[in-house]
């Protein structure tokens, strides 16, 4: 067996028909409504337990994805009564996000974009929610407080300036759209300046020579230079954590969307090539791209990475032309078809999530994470799966990001 996927295997995978995409989305909407009724105003945690999310409070970096699912379901639902139910649920969530940022509850980290873009920016764009707009602008201001002048980056985690956390992480590329949105909304240049500076640092130091990405990058707090790269959730420091690479795919697409810088377009093609070249034959990555069908068949997958990368390729195909645009749009569709056929949960008895076989954090002898959510649904996997379906159904979709 080949160690890595070949272009022939990739292009031999079929694309989904419109009917298949519509059926997959219909199933997601049904499941979203069921869970909304079951959870009321509670939020799921990052990952399911034996296939089922458990209701909890609006905490962690992930609760925005649940509200994002509600908005995607709202956008795609045809029945007026169900649509109203989804809208009312989404707006109740927005009130919770306002309370969270107002009371500064669990917001001392960089994940303001993950939290406030698919929830509150989406609510504002879809319904004109003034509360959504205000909460999202407050979250953007909170994100600005994470900026480190020396090194020019948004510090991901921990106390500001703490030597063991003087770093940014690849995931942060998806937090930047909140700052670009805040700039477009207010015309205050500080949002864009800081987003641009973080992008420059992340693009300079986050992508390795072989086109894989560092999960986390430590900067020197005195000189502002690159210090060293390290993983937290990947297998080991030098390997490519699948989701980090997927954040890189979508993140470089967003970087290009907001700046139109040629080097970011090039970064997208590099990072995406690495991701695609390291997929197993069924197009759903192992949790770290170091594993392949040949030697990693016992390792769990991370289906969320395929969904995130598909969204990134669909986004980038909007900004490219001709054969290149077609290649990324087609490839994204092949990934989505693989997810529909092999990973989507279609029964409420099996799971209250949408996408099976995600991996949040798997402990290895070489990484620093705590094991959580291995071979489970993960809430951002559910969200990005729905976003990918939505993008395929509505090529001109006004994105939340
Ligand atoms: N942003 C954290 C993760 O992808 O697990």
Work out the radius of gyration.
19 Å
What general outline do the C-alpha atoms trace? globular
Instruction: Calculate the mean pLDDT score and round it.
Output: 97
Strand order of the largest sheet: 5-6-7
Structural class: mainly alpha
The top-level CATH class is Mainly Alpha
Q: Pick out the low-confidence regions.
A: none
Which architecture would the CATH scheme give at its second level? Alpha/alpha barrel
Order of helices and strands: HHEEHHHHEEEHHEEHHHHEEH
CATH topology: Glycosyltransferase
Number of helices: 13
Q: Largest sheet, if any? A: 3 strands, antiparallel
Report the end-to-end length measured between terminal Cα atoms.
Answer: 40 Å
Strand content: 5-15%
Helical fraction equals 40-55%
Write down the oligomeric state. Answer: single chain
Overall strand count: 9
Count the domains: 1
- Small molecules held by this entry: glycine
Can you offer a commentary on this structure?
- The protein has 401 residues and is mainly alpha-helical.
- It has a single domain, classed as Glycosyltransferase, CATH 1.50.10.
- 52% of the residues lie in helices and 7% in strands.
- It has a 3-stranded antiparallel beta sheet, with no helix packed on it.
- The longest helix has 23 residues, at 80-102.
- The chain starts with 6 loop residues before the first helix and ends in an 8-residue tail after the last helix.
- 56% of the residues are buried.
- The model has no long low-confidence stretch (mean pLDDT 97).
- The protein binds glycine.
- Glycine is lined by residues 171, 233, 243, 360.
- Glycine (GLY) is lined by residues 171, 233, 243, 360.
């Amino acid at each position: 067996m080949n160690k890595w996927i070949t272009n022939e295997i990739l292009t031999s995978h079929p694309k989904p028909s419109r009917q298949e995409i519509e059926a997959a989305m219909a199933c997601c909407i049904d499941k979203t409504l069921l869970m909304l009724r079951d959870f009321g105003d509670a939020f799921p945690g990052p990952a399911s337990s034996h296939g089922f999310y458990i209701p909890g409070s609006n905490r962690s970096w992930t609760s925005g994805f649940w509200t994002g699912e509600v908005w995607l379901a709202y956008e795609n639902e045809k029945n007026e009564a169900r649509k109203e139910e989804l809208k009312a649920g989404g707006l109740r969530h927005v009130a919770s996000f306002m309370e969270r940022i107002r009371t500064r509850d669990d917001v001392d980290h960089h994940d303001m974009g993950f939290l406030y873009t698919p929830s509150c920016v989406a609510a504002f764009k879809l319904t004109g929610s003034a509360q959504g707009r205000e909460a999202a602008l407050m979250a953007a201001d909170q994100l600005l407080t994470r900026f480190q002048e020396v090194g020019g980056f948004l510090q991901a985690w921990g106390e500001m300036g703490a030597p063991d956390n003087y770093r940014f992480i690849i995931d942060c590329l998806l937090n930047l759209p909140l700052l670009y949105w805040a700039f477009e909304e207010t015309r205050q240049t500080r949002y864009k300046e800081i987003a641009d500076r973080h992008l420059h640092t992340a693009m300079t130091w986050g992508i390795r020579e072989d086109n894989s990405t560092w999960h986390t990058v430590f900067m020197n707090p005195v000189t502002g230079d690159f210090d060293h790269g390290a993983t937290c959730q990947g297998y080991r420091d030098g390997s490519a954590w699948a989701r980090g690479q997927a954040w890189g795919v979508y993140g470089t697409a967003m970087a290009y969307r907001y700046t139109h810088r040629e080097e970011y377009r090039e970064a997208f093609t590099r990072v995406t090539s690495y991701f695609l070249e390291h997929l197993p034959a069924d197009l759903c990555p192992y949790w770290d791209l170091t594993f392949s069908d040949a030697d990693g068949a016992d390792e769990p997958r991370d289906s969320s990475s395929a969904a995130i990368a598909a969204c990134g390729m669909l986004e980038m195909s909007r900004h490219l032309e001709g054969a290149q645009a077609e290649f990324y749009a087609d490839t994204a569709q092949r990934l989505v078809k693989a997810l529909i056929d092999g990973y989507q949960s279609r029964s409420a008895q099996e799971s209250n999530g949408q996408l099976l076989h995600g991996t949040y954090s798997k402990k290895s002898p070489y990484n620093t994470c705590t094991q959580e959510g291995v071979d489970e649904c993960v809430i951002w996997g559910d969200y990005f799966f729905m976003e990918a379906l939505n993008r395929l159904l509505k090529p001109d979709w006004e994105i939340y990001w």
